[in-house]
Amino acid sequence: MTVPHFDMVVVGGGIHGAGVAQAAAARGHAVLVLEQHDIGSGTSSRSSKLIHGGLRYLETGQLPLVYQSLHERERLIKNAPNLVHRIPFYLPVYQHSKRGPLKIRMGLSLYALLGGLGKAVSFRKVPKTEWAALDGLETKGLSAVFQYWDAQTDDQALTQAVMRSAQTLGAKLALSATLTSAVKEEARYRIHFLENAERQQCTTDTLVNAAGPWVNAVADCVSPPLQKIETEWVQGTHIIIDDTVQQGIYYLEAPQDRRPVFVMPWKGRLMVGTTETIFKGDPSEVRPLESEKTYLIETLATYFPRFRSLQTSDIQSAFAGLRVLPKAESGLGQRPRETRFVVDDGQQPRLLSIYGGKLTTYRATAQQVMDQLAKSLPRRKIIADTAEIKL
Ligand SMILES: Cc1cc2nc3c(=O)[nH]c(=O)nc-3n(C[C@H](O)[C@H](O)[C@H](O)COP(=O)(O)OP(=O)(O)OC[C@H]3O[C@@H](n4cnc5c(N)ncnc54)[C@H](O)[C@@H]3O)c2cc1C
User: Fold this and answer.
1) What's the pTM value of the predicted model, to 2 decimals?
2) What CATH architecture does domain 5-44+156-229+337-376 belong to?
3) Which atom of ligand 1 sits closest to the CA of residue 42?
4) For a tag on the chain, would you pick the N or C end, based on fewer CB atoms within 10 A?
């Protein structure tokens, strides 16, 4: 039996796996994606569904991340207009808020500067006369409301669209396909996987570990053993309520710990998130906790008095996803959110593991992955540019 050979095998059908497959196929490579369940079934369907610069990352000095995210946001709005749409964000500032109006104005000015100025990153102070139209927002103690623009998507639909684009360019996809081992043999890897419980194998010039929260579990399947980043899983929960807001997304400060929480319109309902709770255990078993639901309801009720009698039993649905953050002493809010790569060989990498990252920057991340592995890939004729492909 002949064993199929690929230029690249990608483990994981989340946004990063789909993005890398699209980028590899666009450069003319033969690529196979292995996904243990379904496309976008992991973190890429449990995010806050924002395509955004990440205003709050300015405070931790992650300017390159914000710059890149704002530029990728614009590209996605242009290339995927049916999946990514601009939406107004409202940032209320109260007398007790952690950040005063001056600080917010400075942050939004820097955000606009990093986004290249122009209409897409413009912001304004909402006049008091318009406060009554803000979906019943609490006005007691309110000193100012700022409005700026970011974008919203359906994360799983976006991931599926990127994967479809990769397949149109020639990528192969195996669903219900779990990597079980990858063994380095001279200038390639031999891959074993279970597809619908049947043993399969192939060989590949390069291997990309895009397994999200399972990144280190996949790294443990590789021999010789790989370097790994010590990580911590941080769970984030969202709740969905049978109500809605009309004006846009509200960027609030949780009363309990002053963390950011978004109140968003979502498919005709109201979505509130997120939380940050250290998670230990099997990533497949992450579930919203009662304490997280209470935290989100309390935040919602603080800013929108009509929800003051809402109970956790009124929640229609809830979901939780896992962030993969580097293990550190610093607080969760201070940890870097940049994507990190670990390769098997600094001279000529053939295997690359992706740690962390953002939905928003998946395309830029995929380009970086391709550049890092370029030396180990055969020369092929480029057939498309992911910056231009419509989704
Ligand atoms: C609560 C929360 C909110 C977020 N909000 C935002 C946001 O608003 N905007 C934004 O830009 N980013 C956001 N992010 C970040 C973003 O969602 C993630 O960075 C991104 O979805 C990660 O995608 P991924 O492809 O790396 O991982 P995943 O989507 O988890 O995909 C990994 C895939 O690998 C598969 N897999 C694992 N092991 C194997 C194996 N052995 N064999 C085969 N397949 C395997 C899994 O089944 C899974 O489908 C958020 C993250 C969280 C947790």
Assistant:
1) 0.95
2) 3-Layer(bba) Sandwich (3.50)
3) 30
4) N
